[in-house]
Design brief:
The protein is mostly beta strands and 316 residues long. It has a single domain, classed as monomeric porin ompg (Porin), CATH 2.40.160.40. The chain contains two helices and 17 strands. The chain has a 14-stranded antiparallel β-barrel.
């Protein structure tokens, strides 16, 4: 299976028909995979997951990825996990799942999602809605006007709710397939619990809400990871305004698949956009074992990253 399907994103922004070029191909009852990716900016990412198909209708997917990367003068790490169940009625299907993304000591995002697809002719059309809650780590502030407290200094712990809307179209022919996917995010105002310096213990802390004040307080935490490509900070663990993905796969012969993908991600905190391009090749070694290799390049405000990875998959 191609790299993007193995990513197991519940919306399947990275998913596409891999073996659509082989009409005789039948999905296995279960698949497991493990992979490793390295970047030239001291970036490392390991991933593992599984897909279970007890019958022609039901399927379940599990995925886990752990990455660590270097910031200027500091290090950071992230963990992303997801689980989803789906039911295929034939020409259409529905699914539900949950996703958790964490950047250590910075943010934790929990998402609950529902999705569906419809197949017509050579097309597969998909949609997803995800409700997310993001909690940010505490960060200090100075000389801010806090309602009920005046102009003070202290620390703020902020969170924000958001909705993600996604749509994807896959097109499959005998030897090739392609996909286009778009996700948009809508955010509520930041809600921050404020601890004012010098206030007596036990006193109920004030709260700060709104796009102006709440956004400024939250940015003190988010600025640590602002300006880094979502390739380094996974899309599921950071706050984006939108993400656009395009890709194509070509069946070279019965053993080889190849293709390319392009992503454009827009960051919420800064409004900056980042591009990621990659090319991959998949080799089916046996009836049950395949190996995939990929190389790519991701832009960032601080330092661009070139990366390469390998993944093994076993069909059971």
């Amino acid at each position: 299976m191609r790299r993007c399907r193995l990513a197991m994103g519940a919306f399947a922004v990275l998913a596409g028909p891999v073996f659509a070029a082989s009409p005789e191909y039948q999905p296995p009852l279960a698949s497991v995979y493990a992979g490793l990716e390295l970047g030239n900016t001291d970036t490392r990412r390991a991933e593992a997951g599984a897909t279970l198909r007890p019958n022609d209708n039901w399927s379940a997917t599990l995925a886990l990825a752990r990455a660590d990367f270097d910031f200027p003068g500091d290090d950071a790490a992230s963990t992303v996990g997801s689980a989803k169940v789906a039911y295929d009625f034939g020409d259409f299907g529905v699914g539900a799942g949950l996703r958790r993304g964490e950047i250590d000591d910075i943010s934790v995002t929990r998402g609950w999602l529902v999705s569906g697809f419809y197949e017509v002719s050579d097309w597969r059309l998909s949609a997803e809605i995800e409700a997310r809650d993001t909690a940010l780590a505490a960060a200090g502030f100075t000389n801010e006007e806090i309602p009920g407290a005046g102009r003070v200094s202290g620390t703020a712990r902020c969170d924000v709710d958001s909705l993600g809307y996604g749509a994807q179209a896959n097109y499959s022919r005998s030897r090739w397939s392609g996909f286009a996917a778009l996700r948009l995010f809508q955010y509520d105002d930041f809600d921050c619990a404020v601890e004012v310096s010098g206030r007596p213990r036990g006193e109920r802390p004030p709260r700060a809400r709104g796009r102006g004040l709440g956004g400024r307080l939250a940015s003190n935490t988010l600025k640590v990871v602002t300006g880094f490509s979502p390739r380094l900070i996974p899309r599921e663990a950071t706050l984006l305004e939108s993400t656009l993905a395009l890709g194509a796969t070509y069946s070279i012969d019965e053993s080889w698949l190849g293709g390319g993908e392009l992503y454009r991600d827009v960051e919420r905190a800064s409004g900056e956009d980042f591009m990621t391009a990659l090319a991959f090749a998949n080799r089916r070694m046996t009836d049950t074992l395949s190996v995939e290799l990929w190389v790519g390049y991701a832009t960032a405000t601080f330092e661009d990253t070139a990366f390469a990875g390998v993944r093994m998959q076993a069909d059971l």
